[in-house]
TrEMBL record:
Transmembrane segments: none annotated. Belongs to the MinC family. The gene is minC. This is Probable septum site-determining protein MinC. Residues 126-225 form the Septum formation inhibitor MinC C-terminal domain. Keywords: Cell cycle, Cell division, Septation. It comes from Bradyrhizobium erythrophlei. The keyword Iron-sulfur does not apply. Residues 34-80 form the Septum formation inhibitor MinC N-terminal domain. GO terms for biological process: cell morphogenesis; division septum assembly; regulation of cell division; regulation of cell septum assembly.
Length: 230
């Protein structure tokens, strides 16, 4: 046999496959319906991104031009129309999404949009004296007190402590490992001073630091106390 055997081309593989799509049901007036779509997109930004959308036009009577405009409006909102149903094929042009028939309903669980977390305040301001027995704790930042801190009171901060008055109680700054935290006060008669766990008691505080504005800071593992004007 001299005939050259021809290689048969491989057959094209065609398989059916189903996908879940969001079905939009436009109603008139279309402008108001699009406004509702905009509200949904603002509440759930990105929820429809990359997901197929089908238009069911069974509740409206739109011309071919109106359908084309509606598809364009949705595409401007980054909603890609996979197909259209509920309309006569003569209303669709070749450039429009194809006519779909035989779609079945299914449930699609919509995730609730996450509420943005409220930003925590970086500082706490108290415009009154802190009395004996009171404990003020603010681990997220600085504490500022416009007034004095009585003996037996306690101030605990994740950041620095600013006292526009006399400090007679206990002050602990930088409790979350903030080595640069400081304690400032107009006059110091403290029972205890601490920064990041390093502390000094009243007996260890230099008496010369008791008069006038003072700052407390950490140098290595030693709590230092110096006048602000030094």
């Amino acid at each position: 046999m001299d005939a050259v055997a021809r290689t048969r081309p491989k057959p094209i593989r065609l398989r059916g496959r189903s996908y879940v799509a969001f079905v939009f049901y436009p109603i008139v007036p279309i402008i108001e319906w699009l406004e509702e779509i905009d509200v949904t997109l603002r509440q759930s930004p990105g929820f429809f991104a990359g997901k197929p959308v089908v238009l069911d036009l069974s509740a409206v009577d739109l011309s071919q031009n109106a359908i084309a405009q509606l598809v364009s409006n949705l595409e401007q909102r980054e909603l890609r129309v996979l197909g259209i149903e509920g309309v006569d094929a003569s209303r669709l042009s070749a450039s429009m999404p194809p006519l779909l028939i035989g779609g079945r309903h299914c449930a699609i669980g919509q995730e609730q949009p996450k509420k943005p977390e409220a930003k925590k305040a970086a500082s706490l301001l108290l415009d009154s004296q802190v009395r004996s027995g009171q404990s003020i704790v603010f681990p997220d930042g600085d504490i500022t007190i416009v007034g004095s801190v009585s003996s037996g009171a306690e101030i605990v901060a994740g950041g620095s402590i600013h006292i526009y008055g006399t400090l007679r109680g206990r002050a602990m700054a930088g409790i979350n490992g903030n080595l640069s935290a400081r304690i400032y006060c107009q006059k110091i008669e403290a029972e205890l001073l601490a920064i990041d766990g390093y502390y000094r008691t009243a007996e260890e505080i230099d008496a010369a630091a008791y008069h006038g504005p003072t700052q407390v800071w950490l140098e290595g593992d030693v709590v230092q106390i110096t006048p602000l004007n030094s």
